[in-house]
Amino acid sequence: MVNSRVASRYAKSLLGLAVEKNVLKEVYQDMMLFKETCKANRDFVLMLRNPIISHEKKKAVLYALFQDKFHPITLTIFDVITRKNREAYLPAIAESFENQYRHHQGIAKAIITSSVPLTEKLREEVTSLVAKQTGKKVELEEHVDSTLIGGFVLKIGDQQMDNSVKAKLKALTYEFADNSFVKSY
């Protein structure tokens, strides 16, 4: 809880500064690259969290990796965070920044998992349905999971709709188990 609060405050400050300086798109791209770097490299995240490594060394690593790629405002937030010894929060700050950016831009992120890849027509229908429900532009992320057997699982924010065959079979299993237990007494 404390981590998310700290990350949210830094992300909010960065978003406000980026809007003020009219470089929101550039800073957003920087933070997405940083987030992907963290996702792809566990050792990098562990280095940021390691209390034995000095804050100056962490800052040097951040600058060596990102100085030529990132906007100066993004580098400024890295500088502030390393001066305050809060490098471990950087991955959470990137995540929080992405969420705040979407909110600021009026974008809803929807994640759909289906048993087979979506057709273009179905993709448009899902996007239209989510846009109508949320009143926002939709960013659709697609995943394929053959264990679903059929149907889909749609997640928008913290809401999830599980319309998969796997979930329906599981519900039937529980229903039959409950009924057989009740009838045996």
In DSSP terms (H or I, runs of 4 or more residues), the helix count works out at 8
Q: How many separate structural domains?
A: 2
Trace the largest sheet across and list its strands.
2-1-3-4
CATH class of the largest domain: Mainly Alpha
Tally the beta strands.
Answer: 4
Task: Specify the overall morphology.
Answer: elongated
Calculate the terminal CA-CA distance, rounded to whole Å: 46 Å
Multimeric state: single chain
Order of helices and strands: HHHHHHEHEEEH
How much of the sequence is in beta strands? 15-25%
Structural summary, described in words:
The protein is an alpha+beta fold and about 180 residues long. The chain folds into two domains: about 1-105, Peroxidase, domain 1; about 105-185, no CATH class. It is about 65% helix and about 15% strand. It is built from eight helices and four strands; from the N terminus they run ααααααβαβββα. The protein has helices at about 1-20, 25-40, 40-50, 55-65, 70-85, 90-105, 120-135, 165-185; strands at about 105-115, 135-145, 150-155, 160-165. Strands 2-1-3-4 form a four-stranded mixed β-sheet. Strand 1, helix 7 and strand 2 form a beta-alpha-beta unit. It is elongated and about 60 Å long. The protein starts with a helix and ends with a helix. The model has no long low-confidence stretch (mean pLDDT about 90).
